[in-house]
Amino acid sequence: MVASMDCKLAHWPAELRVQDGISEGQYEESLQTELPKLRAACEQYWEKGHTTPSNEPVKITFIVCAKRHHTRFYKPTDKPGQVVNPLGGTYVDKDITESYPWDFYLQSHTALKGTARPAHYIVLHDEVIKHEASKPRGNNPPVRPADLIAQITHNMCYLFGRSTSSVSICPAVYYADLACTRARCYLMDLYNNTPQAPQAPPASAGESALENWQKSLQARLDLPANVKDHMFYI
Predict the structure, then answer these.
(1) pTM reported for the whole predicted model
(2) Closest to 16 measured CA to CA, from 6, 4, 2, 30
(3) Mean pLDDT of the residues in the chain
(4) Enclosing H/E stretch for 125
């Protein structure tokens, strides 16, 4: 899948984007809003002198990770009425999934206690997986796109920096949650509405006052140059 890698370990020209925090009613809105911005960001990156060996446009696969659902999987045992959690790496892509969009369930971890909760992945847009699955692999049979995306996602679940084993959801989602939690700390006085928090200007103050207020909040989230390219928040 990875055609090249730059000095910052970014993979080009293929990118998998996994996103959390989107409800079912926001799938189309998120796709229509964020996919063009992703393409624009890639084009802006190229304009700064970063190119790929083949000069191909970036291929993007957009996946939503849903955690809050009530689907559970169980493995029967030899004892009547007793079930256990399935093994890590179990995934389901038929019978209980939707016909559209393309989705699957993946239990990538081994639960230490209680019932394991699989992650639900919804593929809203794909330019990578089906393209890679269609490539010839010598005498080996062709790979199903559903098997390929499940394997890639499961392999990624072993790459979380805080764990030496597989985690329950794709690390990209974990890292996004950690980054947002750290950003919230920088704006804690605003969330708690303390007297020291900068107050939003009234509507009568005009757009310039609102822009200045927004810039003051953004300044709190601007990171120093020596840490902005590092995952300090983990």
Answers:
(1) 0.77
(2) 2
(3) 79
(4) strand 119-125
